[in-house]
Specification:
This is Transporter. This protein is an all-alpha fold. The protein is built from 13 helices and no strands. The relative contact order is 0.23.
């Protein structure tokens, strides 16, 4: 019971940190190219990860761990940040945050495929209900207006769900913070080199908000959030703790409204409230 409670606490802290990712990305892409932003955030986090691995003298992963680490690197280090940064050129962060409601279902599905978990049928009912509410809202409110942005967000959710489940399964052997650090380090030669190649012609034109956005997504979204998130998924279960992501729209919408001045409609709040209500049901039947 203590381990389960710890898993939910760590998962909640991870979700709370991740909630700031899309608003911070929205601010950063105002002055940074999305491709550069994706590479730079991964490179900065990779350098910090290198320092942590050296400082704590972590043992190198075994050969069997390389492929899963590559999957984590391609999904959550590069894939999700790039796809969301591209999407945010077409949709607002408030609109994109609603898509996060689909992430628990994607994580649970990959948790079954990659983590060997078997939630009860009622769990899938609550998970699908929450995800269906989000998908219905997106189709009704914004798909016709920005189909490119919505499709990019859907692709980002699929990729991210795979990375969460793969990383959580690997964390059982390597540890939570070690997995994200090794994935960042594995991709560092590529991300650092390409970040230098795609850097802006003049950094003098980049405003302070964009720098703050880059700092947040590099340190918190790319590294610190995963320390809590992977630990929570391992302790509480991938499918179960993954449902906490249904709460992320609450925090993200609040940040988008407070910090960016974006319009948060009552429909967005209603959908967020409805999918959050599904967390309790999914949690109850997760095992």
């Amino acid at each position: 019971m203590d381990k389960m409670a710890s898993g939910w606490i760590n998962g909640f802290l991870g979700v709370l940190i991740f909630a700031g990712s899309l608003p911070a990305t929205r601010v950063a892409v105002a002055d940074f190219d999305p491709v550069f932003l994706t590479l730079a955030r991964a490179a900065i986090a990779g350098l910090v990860a290198l320092g942590l691995l050296l400082a704590f003298r972590q043992k190198r992963p075994e050969g069997r761990d390389v492929l899963p680490l590559l999957v984590v690197a391609l999904s959550v280090v590069i894939g999700f940040p790039l796809l969301t940064a591209l999407a945010l050129q077409h949709v607002t962060s408030a609109h994109s945050i609603v898509f996060i409601g689909l992430l628990p279902l994607a994580t649970a599905l990959f948790g079954v495929l990659r983590g060997g978990e078997r939630p009860r049928p009622a769990f899938w009912l609550f998970s699908c209900l929450g995800s269906g509410l989000v998908a219905g809202f997106a189709a009704r409110q914004g798909f016709a207006a920005a189909p490119v942005g919505d499709l990019l967000m859907l692709a980002a959710i699929i990729v991210c769900g795979l990375g969460y489940a793969e990383g959580a399964a690997l964390s059982r052997r390597l540890g939570g913070w070690q997995v994200i650090c090794w994935a960042l380090l594995l991709s560092l030669p590529v991300t650092a080199g390409l970040a230098l190649a795609t850097r802006p012609a003049s950094l003098m034109l980049v405003g302070a908000p964009a720098w703050l956005g880059l700092a947040y997504v590099s340190l918190f979204s790319m590294l610190i959030g995963f320390v809590f998130w992977y630990r929570g998924l391992v302790q509480g279960g991938i499918a179960a703790v993954g449902q906490l992501q249904l709460l992320q729209p609450f925090f993200g919408l609040a940040l988008a409204g407070l910090l960016l001045g974006e319009t948060v409609s009552w429909q967005m709040l209603a959908v967020s409230a409805a999918v959050a209500a599904c967390v309790a049901g999914a949690k109850r039947f997760s095992r």
